[in-house]
Amino acid sequence: MTSSIVIFNFAFIKENVAMQESIRIRQILQLCQPETVIADIGADHGYTSAALLEAGLAEKVIATDISEHSLKKAKSLFAEKRFGIRAECRIGDGINVLRPGEAQGIIISGMGGHLILRILRACPETVQQCKWLVISPQSNVDIVRRELQNMQLRIIWEDVVWEDKKYYSLLKLQPGKPESYTEAELYTGKENLMVDRKRFLHHMQYLAQRQEQILQKASSSRNAATIAELLEIYRSAGEKGERT
Ligand SMILES: C[S@@+](CC[C@H](N)C(=O)[O-])C[C@H]1O[C@@H](n2cnc3c(N)ncnc32)[C@H](O)[C@@H]1O
User: What separation in Å is there between the alpha carbon of 94 and the centre of ligand 1?
Assistant: First the structure.
């Protein structure tokens, strides 16, 4: 049902999208679908918004930020690119600056998981009236997956991107009944929803390696037990690739 949308978009995104050469932004765009209006919440420099317009994914973008200073960077980028009324800037907290139904797509990237959850919870009507959201929590992805189960938001795709020596998780959501997750899946994501299985397996192997290092340094046995449990979750998810 949803897979056709993503495959279509892989082809849709132009090769020459500027987006300041960020692989992360390129992958965010690959999860988006063409809409009349897409909102970029916490736009900061405005690179994602600019890339959306340049890729032809949005007729108009609404770039928002809580910080006037941040949004100034976006404003000057849009002026330089002569986007005119196709790029609107709004200062404010999260999705509050949007009217319900105004944006068909909403992107929230580059913030911690708890902040993204707070932003989503603050405006249920606007969230439920959009067609899709792409979120990229920089932390606590397991908590985000857990909480989404209580928010009438369904994860339809997941991806990860390696940039600046870090993995970033990308989740595409749609309003609707969420699927239930096992405890392990809250940490790994559901394998059948991964855009790229190879990237998923590399990510799991990376997380297992990190847990191993943390385990070596763990001081209390209580901590060690929790870390070892996580290590096992990532290790068995990462080993799937070797078995098939
Ligand atoms: C690290 S930047 C991410 C920029 C861009 N979205 C990206 O992924 O590259 C985070 C931005 O979110 C903004 N921000 C933080 N809290 C916010 C909120 N509650 N509502 C809107 N923007 C917020 C910050 O001012 C900052 O410009």
Answer: 9
**CATH number of residue 147's parent domain:** 3.40.50.150
What Rg do the C-alpha atoms of the chain give, in angstroms? 18
Identify the bridge partners of residue 63 per DSSP, sorted by sequence position: 40, 89
pLDDT tens sequence across 109-160? 999 999 999 999 999 999 999 999 999 999 999 999 999 999 999 999 999 9
C-alpha to C-alpha distance for 132 and 34, rounded to whole angstroms: 11
Whether the CB-CB separation of 83 and 47 falls below 8 Å is answered with no
Structural domain that includes position 56: 3-181
Q: Whose CA is nearest to atom 2 of ligand 1?
A: 110
Residue 113's H or E segment, with its range, is helix 113-122
C-beta of residue 20 within 8 angstroms of C-beta of residue 160: no
Pocket lining: 168 vs ligand 1, CB cutoff 6 Å: no
